[in-house]
UniProtKB/TrEMBL annotation:
Keywords: Membrane, Nucleotidyltransferase, Transferase, Transmembrane, Transmembrane helix. Its EC number is 2.7.7.65. Pfam families: GGDEF, PAS. The keyword Transmembrane helix applies. The chain crosses the membrane at residues 6-27, 141-161. This is Diguanylate cyclase domain-containing protein. GO terms for molecular function: diguanylate cyclase activity. InterPro entries: Biofilm_reg_signaling (IPR052155), GGDEF_dom (IPR000160), Nucleotide_cyclase (IPR029787), PAS (IPR000014), PAS-like_dom_sf (IPR035965), PAS_fold (IPR013767), Rev_trsase/Diguanyl_cyclase (IPR043128). Residues 229-265 form the PAS domain. It comes from the Bacteria. Residues 387-522 form the GGDEF domain.
């Protein structure tokens, strides 16, 4: 059933129901009013004949009395009329309905108003009165219902043309809109020029269709761009030389590119990322730091990994993947992206370069630049722990003749051999051994309480004086002049001051005969 027909039927039903109720109410009101009016009219007619009836009763004139009651009974409103005089029936006419709605008029003596001589009794014809009142009321009700039906029809037609018909046309236009393909959707047009609610609905609908088309085009462009970016990202992800992986909130690897699998093996998915490294606990610390810190979203750190028994240095760049939604989901996972570079060659080169910068290329001992810092740290530790610290300036005796006689290669052998012997002596002690320059060595030594610096100096002199083999046929021997500065709990002394004093003490020994040591204690 169409909307217009339903609306018309509803309007007609409501109109008929209301008009019927009003007609029923009006029928009852009009019926009561007609009865009351007829009764009043009957009473008035009886009162009009009161005077004539009084004369007939006074004179006992039956003919006059008959004329009066017949005249009353001939009226459609009166069913029965009678006149009594002195309690005797004088005249009557009509059919007595024996109802209680009779009208009784007292007849008086024409010459004495105080004397009652008879009664004029009139009975209204209630059936006629009711039939007449019902006929009038029914005609009024029918007229009212017909008028209501006419109004309902007119309203239904008006609603059809002004509301339901445009709505039906609008609905048909909606059905023709293909929402599955917004790009070809057409605007709604039902030739409606009104500026009422329907007109506003059409404008809003067309605005919505236009916005939907615009958004569809934008999303189409965005989707194409996104597809292109995904292709590029996938190519970059697959072809990247760096290992790329995604770490779940529980630390497992969920995604890994070929370069990552090449670093750690093909079967790395769902493995714990930290277990891929030599010290997993350090990896856990860095991951927890990144997950629970609000100050930064990425960190980079180097870790060591073992592969086939060889140590590898891997540089890891961790980035926390943040939730871009305005309201984060409670079940969103705390994901971390990691990019891994194998920096083993670079790290080994750095270590080699640093070692070469800090050590003497001939003996492998620390050079003067790096050794001074280590000496100062050792002195500070000894002062803090209240330990005895000794600084030895060692200068080889009879070294220059070896260079002059056997050449510099032989001198290099002597220097390497002497440095190895000194390292062996201080192997179990906290010591800093420096090649100070030429044939000079600087030794910082912290001895425990059970050892004497004198005993160590004797052992050192004896070790240095042992023969040094140059080749299968040649051996040489050197001595040493050693200036030893010993200090205990002195926080005011600095390494460079102690070096100056040890150097001066060593030169005093050379001037006094060489190949010996001398100890000077500073308190």
């Amino acid at each position: 059933m169409s909307l217009s027909l339903r609306i018309s039927l509803i309007i007609g039903f409501i109109a008929i129901a209301i008009s019927s109720a009003v007609a029923f109410l009006h029928f009852n009101i009009q019926l009561d009013h007609s009865k009351e009016q007829s009764e009043n009219l009957v009473r008035q007619m009886a009162q009009n004949d009161q005077g004539t009836s009084s004369i007939a009763a006074y004179l006992l004139d039956t003919e006059l009395a008959d004329e009066i009651v017949e005249g009353l009974a001939n009226n459609d409103l009166i069913a029965f009329a009678s006149i009594t005089a002195h309690s005797e029936q004088l005249a009557l006419a009509g059919i007595n309905p024996r109802s209680q709605n009779n009208v009784v008029v007292s007849l008086k003596n024409p010459f004495d108003e105080a004397e009652q001589i008879g009664l004029l009794t009139v009975y209204p014809d209630l059936r006629f009165i009711q039939a007449q009142a019902s006929s009038n009321s029914i005609q009024t009700a029918i007229t009212l219902i017909a008028l209501s039906a006419s109004i309902a029809i007119i309203v239904g037609i008006f609603v059809h043309f002004k509301l339901t018909s445009p709505l039906r046309s609008l609905s048909e236009e909606f059905e023709s809109v293909d929402t599955s393909n917004p790009e070809v959707m057409s605007l709604v047009d039902i030739n409606y020029s009104g500026h009422d609610e329907i007109g506003k609905l059409i404008v809003k609908t067309n605005n919505l269709i236009s916005a939907l088309q615009s958004r569809f085009r934008s999303e189409k462009i965005l989707r194409q761009t996104n597809d292109e970016l995904q292709k590029r990202f996938r190519l970059l992800f697959e072809q990247a030389t760096a290992g790329i992986a995604l770490i779940s909130g529980t630390g497992e690897i969920t995604i890994a590119n070929p370069a990552f699998k090449e670093l750690f093996g093909k079967h790395v998915l769902l493995k714990a990322f930290a277990d891929l490294f030599h010290e997993p606990q350090k990896v856990h610390i860095e991951l927890d730091k990144l997950r629970h810190s609000d100050g930064f979203s990425q960190i980079d750190v180097d870790f060591v990994s073992m592969k086939e028994g060889k140590k590898r240095y891997l540089h890891c760049l961790f980035s926390r993947i943040l939730d871009s939604r305005e309201v984060a989901r409670e079940d969103s996972e705390n994901l971390i992206e990691v990019i891994v570079y194998d920096v083993t060659k670079r790290r080994e080169q750095e270590l080699k370069t640093r070692y070469e910068a800090d050590h003497d290329s001939l003996t492998g001992l620390m050079n003067r630049r790096s050794g001074l810092g280590s000496l100062q740290l050792q002195l500070d530790r000894a002062v803090k722990k209240q330990q005895l610290f000794s600084l030895m300036m060692i200068d080889l005796d009879r070294f220059k003749p070896i260079n002059d006689t056997y050449g510099h290669d032989a001198g290099d052998i002597v220097l390497r051999t002497i440095s190895s012997r000194i390292k062996e002596l201080v192997n179990e002690q906290e010591a800093t051994l420096i090649r100070w320059g030429g044939d000079e060595f600087l030794l910082g030594l912290t001895l425990d309480g059970n050892k004497s610096i004198t005993d160590f100096a004797e052992s050192l002199m004896q070790s240095i004086q042992e023969d040094v083999r140059i080749d299968t046929k040649t051996s040489v021997q050197v001595g040493a002049s050693i200036g030893i500065i010993r200090t205990l709990y002195s926080e005011s002394e600095k390494v460079d001051t102690l070096i100056t004093k040890a150097d001066a003490l060593m030169y005093n020994i050379k001037e006094s005969g060489r190949n010996q040591y001398q100890i000077s204690t500073i308190f």
